[in-house]
Amino acid sequence: MNKAMSLSEAISRFVQDGNCIYAAGFTHLIPFAAGHEIIRQKRRDLILARATPDLIYDQIVAAGCARKVIFSYMGNPGVGSLRIVRTEIEAGDLEWEEYSHFGMISRLQAGATGVPFMPMNPTAAGDLERANPNHRTVTDPYSGRDVAVVRALNPDVAIVHVQRADVEGNAQIWGIIGEQKEAAFAARHVILTAEEIVDDAIIRSDPNRTLIPGFVVDAVCHVPYCAHPSYTQGYYDRDNNFYLTWDEVSKTKEGVQAYLDEWVLGVKDRGEYWEKLGPEVHRQLSVKSRPSTLVDYGDY
Amino acid sequence: MTDRSTYSASELMTINAARLLRDGDVVFVGVGLPNLACNLARRTHAPNLVMIYEAGVIGAQPARLPLSIGDPTLVSGALAVCSMYDIFAFYLQRGNVDVGFLGGAQIDRYGNINATVIGDYNHPKVRLPGSGGSMEIAAWANLCYIITPHQKRRFPEKVDFRTSAGFLGGRAEREAASLRGGGPQAVVTNLGILEPDESGELVLSALHPGATVEQARENTGWALKAVDQPRMTEAPSEKELRILREDLDPKGIYLKDGG
Questions:
Q1: B181-195 tens-digit pLDDT
Q2: What is the ipTM of this complex?
Q3: Which of A166, B38, B126, B149 would suit a FRET pair with B114, their CA atoms being 20 to 30 Å apart?
Q4: What superfamily would CATH give domain A7-102+157-285?
Q5: B133 to chain A: which residues are within 8 Å by CB?
Q6: pTM here?
């Protein structure tokens, strides 16, 4: 089934007020364009889950769309503090639920594989387990020892950006694969954004590269440069300057509002946003080619 | 010629951390100084160091300084890339990591780390980024090294929040918790190196050139013990400084500091 639609239509159809959203991507392939579309469509009371909220959730929180964040590392990666989320948490204006990376990712793994919880070896640190009672302990029925467990996470919507997909949503990713597959299988709805929409034959030429099968996907959106200021391996680089700039911008409410007015509310879509960034940024983010050696699947 | 008479605190810590690594070690690397220390070791005495990044990259050979833990340069030319679940489960939890590097806002007397919050958890005075992978690295890597500047506020008697386990209340308590990893084996600061004694308490075991036991005590929040004759570390060599300054961090993003 052809699931191609605009990102605007996909957000409008699948993201509802109060939903739990998982915008996937560990540093790589973060679907910023979808975050901006959520802001433009003024969703409210969202629960935002991500291992690293990153700038995408800082911006969605700043725009007043969220009531809660679920995370395992709340920083501006490589820069320092994630100012908006941090300030709102310190002020008591935003709910939060916190895990370690493995706890967070284990929740998704459980959700993605259809089991109620995931066991983990003990870490003994203790304080985070006490602070977040969703951490529980069960008895290993084989050894009698304690095992730490976290509950399955099944977001209402996963948003996953990929290098290429066909119109049915069969999607291929390379580079850091973070938790894209887990988020897609765990969620009730999946919005896929892709740098390129390709023919089914391209997907079938390299089936090992397919992380997400089309039948778990609800919407396929062609959104080149969707990940900026994050990156897409082999397509464009991470805009580290922007991550540094955001550290300044997010120091004041006025700065953040001016940014949202100009770069989110002031553009209609990602195409316009990318044009607005201008040729100098395009040049800085361009990457030289370094292809893999082709593998031979054999003709059977 | 590289001037080795002056070097920053960050350079000093990075070089001493690099020297702790052994050739062939599988290291779970963080960005910043640990990344520089590992790359320095790989270019000096440990060419077979295997660098693992929590983003799911194994055997990375970064061609440029990665500014984030998920920089694309970590992927190009790496041995393998896997999911985040796999890197924590197959590699770290299963026991395939020799060395983990850690940092944090506070390190206490028994090497426990706080990277979560200053003040009360529910009403934080300062909200820090949180565990990330720190909780698991501290528990499951065969051993851990900590890099942190030597300041009293960073070395309290007891951490405000125990994000990651050092020796808990002492070595016996960690042993009772049956964690697979051995815990922190060295804390490298700009004054020297602390190592756990038989009770798990961090004790000053080495001093960098020019530093004194008194200085270390003044900058520690508990009554810091020192071994009888603290070892004197070798000053950074010209080669180590040149690799750091010219190859690894030419813009001084991590290495320039107030000294």
A1: 999 999 999 999 999
A2: 0.96
A3: B38
A4: Glutaconate Coenzyme A-transferase (3.40.1080.10)
A5: 73, 100-102
A6: 0.96
